[in-house]
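Worked problem 6 (solution included).
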Amino acid sequence: MQDSNRKSMSASEQLGVFIRLLRYLKPHKLSITIALVLLVITITGGIVSPLLIQSFIDNHLVTLDFERTSVVRLLIAYIIVQITIVIISYFQSLRFQRIALQIIQQIRVDAFTKIHGLGMRYFDKTPAGSIVSRVTNDTEAIKEMFVSVIVTFLQAIFGIVGVYIALFSLDATLAFYSMALLPLFLLLVAVYRYYSADFYQDIRERLSQLNGKISESLSGMGMVQAFRQEQRFADEFKSINDGHYRAGLRNIRFDSALLGPFIDIMYAAVVVFALAYFGFTSLSSAVDVGVIYAFTTLLRRLFQPIQQVMNRLSIFQQALVSASRVFTLIDEPDMEPVQLLEKDTKITDGTIVFEDVTFSYDGKTDVLKDISFTANAGETVALVGHTGSGKSSIINLLMRFYEYEHGSITIDGRSLKSYPMEELRNKVGLVLQDPFMFYGDIESNIRMHNESMTLEDVKAASEFVQANKFIEQLEGEYAHKVMERGATLSSGQRQLIAFARTMAVDPKVLVLDEATANIDTETEIAIQASLQKMRKGRTTIAIAHRLSTIQDAELILVLHKGEIAERGTHQQLLQLKGLYYKMYQLQNGQTA
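Solution. The predicted structure is:
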C-alpha cells in the first residue's frame, strides 16, 4: 500500500524540519555545552600536532640541530597532545551519543503517546505497518543524524575555522586562495540536497510498505495458510522488496558519483596547486620544508571533515525525510473526540437516549440516518440486522470512538460529550465479539494494570462470569502466561476473560457486540446465567446475531441500511411479520 504522505520536500520544509529537530536539544543545554568544549579541545589538538612536527622539521631536522632538551620537549608535547585527543574524544563522543539517545527516546515517546490519542478514523485509513515504521525505523534514522551527522557538522565547522587560522599563520596568500573551496563545497551540498530528497523519500516509503506487508502477513498467518496464499504474499513482498532495492541502488549510484570522487579530485587539485605555489615561491625566496609539510597536512585536515560531511549528507537527508514522516504523525489532527467537560458529570443510572443521530465515516455516505431510541436504566436494547446495517456504528458512537455532528446522544440527560473520558471508560463496559488479549498473564489481562484492583477483585469478577473454572485448571492459574493476542487460549476462554475484565470495573452501562458468538454451546448455556446477572441493574446495548439470546430484551431495534426499520419486543416484532420475523424464521429453519 502506498503511503499517503508521498511528496517531495522543499528546501523551506527541510529547514523547518531541521529547526524543529534542534528544539529537542533545549533540555540538554549544559551537556551540549560541555560536549562542545571537549570538541574544541580535540580539534585544537589535531591542529597543534602538525605545527609541532613543523617546528621539529624546520628547527631541528633541516638544521641538524638535535639539542636534547628542546627535542624532548617537542616529543613530550606531541605525546601529551595525542593522548589528550584520545581521552577527550572518548568523553566527547560518549556525551554526544547520550544526548542523541535521549532525544530519540523523547521523540519516540511523543509519537507513541500521540498514537494513543488519535481517533479511530486515522487507523481506518493508515496501515499498521506504516505507523510502526515511523515509530521505529524513521526514529532510528533520526538517531543516526544526532549521533553522527550533527557531531560531524560541528567538527567540520570548528575544524575548518581552526585549520584556516593555522593556514593564515603559515602563508596568508595561499590560505586566501584556498578559501575559494568553500563556495564549491556549499554548491555541492546544495546540488546533493536538491536531487537526493526524492530518492530518500522513495526509500522510506518503500520501507514503510515492506513493514506493512510483513505486519499484514503475520497478523493474518492463519488465513494465509488456510487459503494457500503463501506464494501470493511472497510474490507481493518480493515486488515491494525489489522496488526498495532499486530505490536504494539508485541512491548509492548517486552518492558514489557525486560525493567521494568529487572530493578526491578537489583535494588532489588543491595539493597540486599548493605544491606548485611553493615551487614558484622558492625561486625567489627560501621556503621552509616544515611549512610545506604543515600546510599540506592541514589541507588534508581541512578535507577530512568536509569528506565526512559529504559522506554523511545521505544520512542527514534520510533523517530529514524520516523526521518529516514522524512529525506528520505527531501533528496528525485527526484526534479522538474532544469532550466538552461540565462540572459534576457522573454516570449514575445509565439512561441512554439517541435522538436524530446521523453519522458518516467518510463525510460522504451516511451509515446511520436519523437514529432515535431510548434505553432506560436497567433495560436491555438489542440491535439486530444484516451486515452493514449500522449496528457497530451505533456502538462506536456510544463508546466515543468517532465524533458525531448531527443529532444528540445523552446519558442520564447529559450530552455524551460532557463526560470525562475516564468516566465513560469506567462506567461503560465493552465486550467485543473477538476480544483482544495483551501479552502478560491472566491477572493483568483482567485487571488491565488498575493498581486499585486486588487479586481478590480479579477472582471475584472471574467467578461472577464463571471464568474461574477454566482459569483454576491452568498452570499458574491467574499467573498463567498469556501469549500475544492470547494465541494459546481458545476463543471461548478469551471471551470469558473479556467478560471478567469488563465486570471487574462494575460498569453502569454494558455494551455487548455478539459477546457469545465465539463460545461453544455448552459454555453458552452456562454463561447465559452470568449474562443475566451482568445485565441486572445495568443498561445494556447488545448487538445480536442469534435472536434467541435477546428475546427478553425490553426493546429490539431492527436496522436496515442505517435506519431503524422496526422496533419493539420479540413478540411484537414477530407479529409484524417483517424483517425480524424473516430473520427469526431463517434461524429456526422455518420457511414462510
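Discussion: The CA atoms of residues 558 and 564 lie 6 Å apart.
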